[in-house]
Amino acid sequence: MSQTALIVEDEIFVALDLERILTDAGYNVAGIAADSRSAIECAPGCAFAFVDVNLRDGATGPEIARRIAEDYGVKIVFVTANPSQIGNGIEALGYIRKPFSERAILAAAALATGAGQAAPEDVIPLGIAM
Q1: What's the burial of 58, exposed, middle or buried (CB within 10 Å: 0-12/13-18/19+)?
Q2: What global pTM score does this model have?
Q3: CATH fold of 4-113, please?
Q4: What is the C-alpha to C-alpha distance for residues 4 and 23, in angstroms, rounded to an integer?
Q5: Which of the residues bear the PTM 4-aspartylphosphate (predicted)?
Q6: Which is it for strands 28-33 and 94-97: parallel, antiparallel or unpaired?
Q7: What are the tens digits of pLDDT across the range 64-93?
Q8: Which H/E stretch holds residue 63?
Q9: Which of the chain's ends, N or C, has fewer CB atoms near its CB within 10 Å?
Q10: Which residues are 32's β-sheet partners?
């Protein structure tokens, strides 16, 4: 399976931290997208994406996630401080609450690429609030 990730995050320091964690672990990062348009452009060829809910163009993260999952088969992990805004009907591996740990990001990446399993405290399934 592809080791290529997409980061959908408008806070540049958060996005760069995610990129560093992933590249240090050997993953490829196709791009950092801060809005819907750039996320859709970067999605083809990505295996998984870390998606925030609130982006430069509003609370568009859930719709971006739905679209890139359906159109390109990208596996989704939300990285957000606002998991209640994710909504229903989105096929995602789960979410990681901000502020995140490096361990949680790497566990989610391994889960998304089929290289490992995440402990429940790392990637929280949608519908379970912690």
Answers
A1: exposed
A2: 0.90
A3: Rossmann fold (3.40.50)
A4: 10
A5: 52
A6: unpaired
A7: 999 999 999 999 999 999 999 998 878 899
A8: helix 61-72
A9: C
A10: 7
Checking DSSP bridges between strand 4-8 and strand 28-33, what pairing results, if any?
parallel
Task: For residue 54, give both structure tokens.
Answer: 């609130």
Phi and psi torsions of 49, nearest 5°:
-140, 140
pLDDT in tens, 43-66: 999 999 999 999 999 999 999 999
Every domain of the chain and the residues it spans? 4-113
Answer for the pair 2, 46: CB distance below 8 angstroms, yes or no: yes
Buried b (16+ CB within 10 A) or exposed e, 6-22: bbbbbeeebbebbbebb
The Cα 91–Cα 41 span in angstroms is 20
Tokens of 73: 């088969």
Number of neighbours of residue 82 by Cβ within 10 angstroms:
15
